[in-house]
Amino acid sequence: MKDFIEFVARVMEVEPETLSEDTAYGLHEKWDSMMQLRLVMEIEEEYDVEIPIDDVPNIKTLKDFYKYLEK
Amino acid sequence: MRCALLSNVTVDLLAGMLKKSSDIYLSAGFDTWQQEVINLSSGLYGFRPEAVVVLLHAGSYEWSDLASGLQMIDDWCSVFSMLTSNLPGVPVFVSSLDISIKAHYGAEIRIEEKLENYLIENIQDLHNNGANIYILPVKDTIVELGRSNFYSSKMWYVGSMPYSIKGLSALNDIVLRYISVFKGMHKKCIAVDLDNTLWGGVIGEDGVQGIQLSNHKEGQRFYDTQKILKKMKEQGVMLAILSKNNVDDVEPVFKLPDMVLKHEDFVAEVINWNSKSANIKQLAKDLNIGLDSFVFLDDNPAEREQMKAECPEVTVIEFPKDSSQLPEIVEKAYNDYFLSLEVTGEDSKKTAMYRADTLRKAEMSSATSVEDFLKKLDMVMDIHLMKEEEEKRVTQLTNKTNQFNVTTKRYSEEDIHTLASSVSSDVITVHISDKYGDQGLVAVLILKYKDDEAEIDTFLMSCRVMGRNVEFEIISMLKEMLNRRGVKLVRSTYIKTEKNAPVFELYEKLGFVLVAASDEKKIYSSLTEALPSSTGVFKEVICELW
After folding, report:
1. What is the mean pLDDT of residues B431-458?
2. Highest mean pLDDT: which range of A28-32, B81-85, B400-404, B486-490
């Protein structure tokens, strides 16, 4: 999880300390709809996972994203 | 550099990447590039761009037949010519199209290439008539990457952005490369070694018989490299020799039939036993160019290291370990450092004057005003009180619309239901369809009533229909409805957020009077009778508000 948080921090261009697994869409100033898109793409590419399009609206926190890495 | 990025799809992420090195302008709304160009008081012109990139995604349209496809491209080209004449001296880069029609059966006529080429030919015509317009070879990039790598259907369906991360990265590269040419960043001279660079082997040791230079087998890689350098020279790049050799040893090689490059192809032949860095400094003086205008090609790592150390301004090409890659590396160096957009010989630069007669084709299909452009969209508006089956969608819109949203009030489905059923409030929905298809439910208004006054609690619209005067038409329908209800005065509010700058002056434009203002909020009012009248650009308005 820690490495994942660091990766997300790089994509969002923020300090990893400002993020946690509960960081949520719409509540972190950098995580708007464009960032949501970018996170889906970057995570898919970096971790070689697939996030189905139907799941995207249900991903609300970093913990939700992390689930795909665990699969 | 101030660069405007216009597109018919969402390119926010690309703009984010470009912003690292340039000042980027992105228009508000979705697919509003034509309005931005036609309207002389648009943000585009206010930005005073030094370069404009128009990135058009062909996948947004159905290219069902040749005639309508050609017509659309004609319409686009008349907008391009408007753009270049409104911004003289500013280079405009238009992406080449990638048209992919999935279903082909039997011996159908393939229209994609005709359409793709039609755009290119038209742009070249404009260019040849003095317009500062160029093709951005995006199609080539897509061919190299492959469509499955360049596009992302997930991003298209979720965010109206057709590109994958790889695609965005490739676009970023190509845009930066082309706008940097205009910043004058390209190099002027390539200084090349001879032994194991222009031919295989060492001439001083192997002699003319022993070196490898031929148009087949192993010697071909050097032959091909020379051909690429020759083409570069024809594009205006200066070639110079920088070699540690005896002139007498080298001379016989020029007589070989497979020696592509001749003496007259070189601006200088510096062949001696001095250090190459000292030689290049002298060469720079002789040619009257800066050291930073040089690119250095040499197979010897020691020479490359010395050049980097003594002349850091010189760009040193990473010579491939496998020399079969040499032609490719030189070609890449051309793209990276020398790319020139004006393919002329020694001719002087083109002037920026227009010739009206050759724009005749463009004028015949041109939209000379925003009004004409909008009329040609064949828009049909359907405005009515919210129906129960629209509740979910309305709720969704109040929660996710940010740009065109004056008060950004977020509601639950329950809230919306209450507002719609109550006698003292109304929820109004607006649907738009145009010649491209049904755009769906695109705008929501929530009105609250008290005595003979109404308050616009919520007014939001999808970015897909921004820039089309839809808001004017909506308010004109509202006017009629409020009249019938006996409402004399309408109040409205603008609450500032990070994203709703596009509607900062919406109510001013709609003719409302500013009653009070602070840093966060503006309060307006208008007599019902002072509200705007119908715009006249809609093909049809179906109104069921009363």
Report:
1. 93
2. B486-490
Does residue B313 sit in the same domain as residue B402?
A: no
Residues B247 and B150 in one domain: no
> pLDDT averaged over chain B?
89
Nearest neighbour of A37 by CB, restricted to B158, B166, B400: B158
Examine the domain organization and report whether B22 and B62 are in the same domain.
yes
Q: Is it the case that residue B164 has pLDDT exceeding 90?
A: yes
- Most A CBs within 10 A among B149, B155, B393, hence the mutation to make, goes to B155
Residue type, B155: M
What 8-state DSSP symbol labels residue B338? I
Residues B155 and B52 in one domain: yes
B400 touching A, CB under 8 A? yes
Here the tokens at position B125 are 């015509």
- For residue A42, the chain B residues in CB contact (below 8 A) are 165
Is residue B198 included in any domain, yes or no?
Answer: yes
Token output for A4: 């994942």
B262, part of any domain: yes
- Whether B177 and B193 map to the same domain: the answer is no
What residues have CB less than 8 Å from B276, skipping those under 6 apart? Answer: B191, B242, B244, B296, B298, B303, B306, B307
Range of the domain at B246: 189-338
Q: What percent of chain B has pLDDT over 90?
A: 69
- The CATH architecture of the domain made up of A2-70 is Orthogonal Bundle (1.10)
- B154 plus B243 within the same structural domain: no
**ipTM more than 0.90?**
no
Region B161-169: what's the mean pLDDT?
94
Half-sphere exposure of B91 (CA within 13 A, CB side): 19
* Distance between CA atoms of residues B252 and B258, nearest Å: 12
User: What pLDDT digit, counting tens, does each position of B238-292 carry?
Assistant: 899 999 999 999 999 999 999 999 998 999 999 999 999 999 999 998 888 889 8
Q: Looking at B338, B356, B388, which one is the last position of a domain?
A: B338
Are B507 and B494 contacting, i.e. CB atoms less than 8 angstroms apart?
A: yes
Number of domains in chain B: 3
- Judge contact between B250 and B242, C-beta under 8 A: no
Query: A28: pLDDT confidence band, cut at 50, 70 and 90?
Result: confident
Please check the confidence at residue B208 and state whether its pLDDT lies above 60: yes
Consecutive H or E run containing B24: strand B23-26
Asked if A45 has any chain B CB less than 8 Å from its own CB, the reply is yes
Region of B189 on the Ramachandran plot (φ > 0 left; ψ -120 to 50 alpha; else beta): beta
CA distance B4 to B1: 10
